[in-house]
Amino acid sequence: MKPTVPQELLEQAAEWDELHRWERRELGRALRRLGLTYSEIREIISVPKGTPSNWCHGIRLKPAQIQAIKDRTPTQKGVPRDSQWRRRHEIDEIKRAATAFAHGHSDDAIFVAGVVLYWAEGSKTRNDLMLANTDPRTLRLFIAWVRRYLDPETEFVLSLHLHEGNNESAAMVYWREATGLGRARFTKTFLKPKGTGHRKNNLEHGVCRVRVTKAGDHWNRIMAWIDVIGDLMAPEIATLTSGR
């Protein structure tokens, strides 16, 4: 049986963009200590093929962990593991259903607005469903869109990008109220150090990132939605850009 990954590690993986290099390495090592294979680690964090083995050199798994890996990876060397095949099949099914859903909602203005918003501003990193902005209205639209078209029980986490001199506590209070996520958890704040002084428009409350937890399936759905809406809009876009 595949080891259960603690929620704390999954949340760290969801914050991948904010992690320092050493934090990413320690996350990979923590996943390996659970008894995950390098391929299973790469299903959770997006890293090059050889990175987990480099990180985890010297970690020795227990005999029971080694046996568990053998039990769940019965295929011959070079043949994709059954669990990988199942996941690819799941993703294909998710995308097929999402494609049909997008065609069925192509005349829904709010749905299309949310797709275009994410197409323009959302994270394209695999399994990372996140949007950052300085305008609370944009973030509220994203939150409402996710809850309406993906999951009404979606959980969100927030993070801030601030400049030196910003009041972090005040910014957290502001963004919780501005987004309507009064109980949302904040992950580590990115603080940009003082620069040359040429920047004149430092934002009082900084930039807020809204991230969806457990977003792998949702991310694949949205990528399919973007493909559909983009293709449907392409003829009109071509007409507009041709000057006719």
The first-to-last residue Cα distance is 61 Å
State the total count of DSSP E strands.
5
Overall helicity: 40-55%
Number of separate helices: 10
What's the domain count?
A: 2
User: Beta-sheet strand percentage?
Assistant: 5-15%
Itemize the secondary structure elements and their pairings.
Layout: H1 7-14, H2 21-33, H3 38-44, H4 51-55, H5 63-72, H6 82-104, H7 109-121, E1 130-133, H8 136-149, E2 156-163, H9 168-179, E3 185-186, E4 190-192, E5 207-212, H10 216-242
Parallel strand pairs: 2-3, 2-4
Antiparallel strand pairs: 1-5, 2-5
Helix pairs in contact: 6-10, 7-8, 7-10
Keywords:
244 residues, alpha/beta, 2 domains, five-stranded mixed beta sheet, 10 helices, 9% strand
Give the gist of this structure.
Helix 7 crosses helix 8 and helix 7 packs across helix 10.
